[in-house]
Succinate-semialdehyde dehydrogenase / glutarate-semialdehyde dehydrogenase
Amino acid sequence: MTAAGSRLFRSQAFIGGRWVDASDGRAFEVHDPADGALIAMVADCTPDDAEGAVAAAHRAFLSWRGVTPLERGRVLRRWFDLIALHAEDLAALLAREQGKPLAEARSEIAYGASFVEWFAEEARRIEGDIVASPSKGREILVLKEPVGVVAAITPWNFPNAMIARKVAPALAAGCAVLVKPAAETPLSALALGVLAQEAGLPQGVLNILPSTRAQEIGSAFTRHPLVRKISFTGSTAVGRLIMRDSAGTIKKLSLELGGNAPFIVFDDADLDAAVAGAIASKYRNSGQTCVCANRFYVQSVVYDDFAARLVKAAAALKVGGAFEPGVEQGPLISLKALSKVEALVADARARGARVLLGGARHSRGGTFYEPTVLGDVPSGAQLLSEEIFGPVAPLVRFETEEEAIALANASEFGLASYFYARDLGRVFRVARAIEAGMVAVNEGFLSMVEAPFGGIKQSGIGREGSRYGIEDYLELKYVRLGGLEG
């Protein structure tokens, strides 16, 4: 079944349990990034639509918060089962609108579903405390209650998983949710809405507002007093604006922002494993991930060997459209993204970096870019301080462990980091010294539902996933009971 032929294919907004057009009748185009083909015309929601969705979510919240955790978990479990049942259609739709290879799209659907399954179970584990009172005849209770209406603003690079990672814990906690998906990839979000409705989620508990008017919709959320929490994944620049605009109503915030992940290869590393990890971290989703390796620091004694092996492995990657057999790297999301990668590579070359592989648009045209490795990248190159968001691996030599740590930490960001070493003492020293919310040691992949996902410094605040993830959707209430002397 083609994505457009699936019953999961929707182009209207989902507000208050109904599928509706934008209030002004406008729609926007969604294109396949691989060939530019028009996929759909999708409702372009307005600030008025956002106001209506907030009201619907608040009404739904007043009843949803009273549903028992057991029943909330059962609804989420039905949603998970439906996602699993329709995984192939969801993957096809995702691959079509986002461009990632079908195999990667299938992995994303499974990854997203894991959050729905996990938080279906966590709903029953929202536990408070009884604190010992300092005086007789009194008790101190600590309760955990849902924060209220949550607005989730999600990116285009993982249009299924980022929604599931935010919505599932919010629903488990008893919150109602407003989702503003990226305009590039709204179809995956709307498909999840279809399945949530079929799972029995009450009207208004989940609302999905596709729109090209991101700033206007965002402002409607940040300034509305009934929206009590914002969960955002995207750039640090936009995260700052959300923090600023939310100050007027003192909202609870979860911000998963920019990254600039170092990937360190020490002289005692298993180089085959390091290369495999580099390929997995750097070229997955064409380098368009917030946690992908952005700058490679390689100890001088193994630099040439590692560089040669990485070039060989990257050169073997098959580039193509999402549905072509064996494809490992797809297109970039847009011409704007392609131009950014070109500019960063040009800047590095102008400063003296050597092109070891690639370094140009792919012969397929469109928004495809060659798998690229740059050698001896100088410290002033822009791509060492900016997120590349493309399939480019810049290599830098270092001499000592202390130098590697200093280079890794010389960034305003602190989301993910990777390093390869076999000396146990070094592993613990470096893991503790690196300034990042997540550290992968001898691994090129670190995202999983059981682990807390998030960063430090200007990479954001809050954590998603794991048993800690539901806490960002809860408030603590202290209750002091007196008159219990008997």
Q: What stands out?
A: The longest helix spans residues 102-122.
